[in-house]
């Protein structure tokens, strides 16, 4: 696993963060050192798949990056007859590496890795859809439209998993959770320069919602229930069941 040093040297002009080849190369290290609880979320997505994925149905991993959630799901549904995983990402560098990871191990579960904009993917006959730290990179209008399409394509009883960074209405709590997240990154070896430059690069492309906003959106769309099932500092994951 190559170490993430993308923001370790001073950058004269910091552009918007993109999931390019440089990021894809160090992504496993970056995500583990940047997102508290990431490994727990990935493991639990597999356990949720074991509970919700049904025979002859589709599972969508939208914004699959290198395929961590896809592989976790596949490990838990190999005995589910006719289940198929469709993994989608718009980064060619991510898709290329995801395909290598998927092909590295044989499995009876079919996995199709697609390079595409997740907003253009048709969702049908789905028992599970995963948006693992993906929705926050879309505009607010696109978020609602995508979730509506997912709801329409989910089978009754199907589940949507949405992992995100959260904002909080109570400002002291919000600032404390941000500070704790930065402490987490420091403990994992990131310098003050890396933390500052990464924050500058990502703040205009990642616009998080509050947990209340997520729940309101799920309710408006018509999900029967939704709740946070994991949270560590200002990161977490929710389920929404049709």
TrEMBL record:
E.C. no: 2.1.3.-
Protein's UniProt keywords contain Transferase: yes
Pfam families listed in its UniProt record: Methyltransf_25
Annotated keywords: S-adenosyl-L-methionine, Transferase
Annotated residues for binding of S-adenosyl-L-methionine: 38, 63-65, 89-90, 117-118, 132, 199
Superkingdom to which the source organism belongs: Bacteria
Catalytic activity line of the entry: prephenate + S-adenosyl-L-methionine = carboxy-S-adenosyl-L-methionine + 3-phenylpyruvate + H2O
InterPro entries: CmoA (IPR005271), Methyltransf_25 (IPR041698), SAM-dependent_MTases_sf (IPR029063)
GO molecular function, one term: transferase activity
Domain Methyltransferase: 59-158
Subunit structure of this chain's protein: Homodimer.
Protein function: Catalyzes the conversion of S-adenosyl-L-methionine (SAM) to carboxy-S-adenosyl-L-methionine (Cx-SAM).
Family the entry assigns: Belongs to the class I-like SAM-binding methyltransferase superfamily. Cx-SAM synthase family.
PANTHER family: CARBOXY-S-ADENOSYL-L-METHIONINE SYNTHASE, TRANS-ACONITATE 2-METHYLTRANSFERASE-RELATED
Designated name of the protein: Carboxy-S-adenosyl-L-methionine synthase
Species the sequence originates in: Vibrio ulleungensis
Lineage: Bacteria, Pseudomonadati, Pseudomonadota, Gammaproteobacteria, Vibrionales
Gene: cmoA
